[in-house]
Amino acid sequence: MIILGIDTSCEQASCAIYSDDCIQEHRSAVDKRKHSETLMPMIDTFLKDIGISIKDIDLFAVSSGPGSFTGLRIGMAAIKGMAYSLNKQIAVIKTPDVLANYYCIEGDTICPVTDARNNQVYTAVYKWNNGFYRPVTDYIGIKIEELAGILKNYEKVKFCGDASIKHYEFFRDNNIDCTEPDLDKLFPSAGVLGRLAAAGFGDIVSPSEAVPFYLRVSQAERFHGKS
């Protein structure tokens, strides 16, 4: 099975091909302001460079959020369009699951933290279970002070995600048993996304059923009084 995964949930956009139980190829670009301009050309060039046609894709996979509202919509629209044109399904996988499963060996408590502004993060807490890191809490949007209160109940916490560097010292200073974040695990990997899709993570849905996962309404919706 050939899986095309894409992630546009944060500042970095990435795409990858996963097949034969490994990540075959991977591309990424950092600039969330231009995802709408760069994503499809990046995918097109990527597939041409590795000699794969879009028609060769058996399953599409996308990181559904939470994360950048605009980025999620761009990625979801792109994957839905490709899958719909080929009558293929989409594996929709939550972004914290993708971040947590950078780690593929049993070990520490994993806490992905994605910046939600104003000292808030999107997060969940993960423990190793049956070959993968799986959430042991709900997916939440939370202030870092509240998250620190939750993490006091866990040992050997390892942070990943784009807010991990920003808030690491705060957690350390609040007596959280944690190690320094890995600088190569700040953004979700489309390759990890493909690996999770191959393992049956998330929901396998039709293009019409694929939607972003939000934990709060967008700034524009708040401004116009929607909820």
Describe it for me?
The protein is α/β, with parallel strands linked by helices. The chain folds into 2 domains: 3-95 and 188-223, Nucleotidyltransferase, domain 5 (2-Layer Sandwich); 96-185, Nucleotidyltransferase, domain 5 (2-Layer Sandwich), CATH 3.30.420. It has 7 helices and 13 strands. It has helices at 35-50, 69-86, 95-100, 144-151, 164-173, 190-198, 219-223; strands spanning 3-7, 12-19, 22-30, 59-63, 90-93, 109-115, 120-123, 126-129, 132-135, 140-143, 157-160, 178-179, 203-205. The strands form 3 sheets. Strands 3-2-1-4-5-13 form a 6-stranded mixed β-sheet, with helices on both faces. Helix 1 packs across helix 2 (69-86). The relative contact order is 0.20. Mean pLDDT is 93; it is low at 218-227.
Features of this protein?
7 helices, globular, alpha/beta, 227 residues, disordered C terminus, five-stranded mixed β-sheet, 2 domains, Nucleotidyltransferase, domain 5
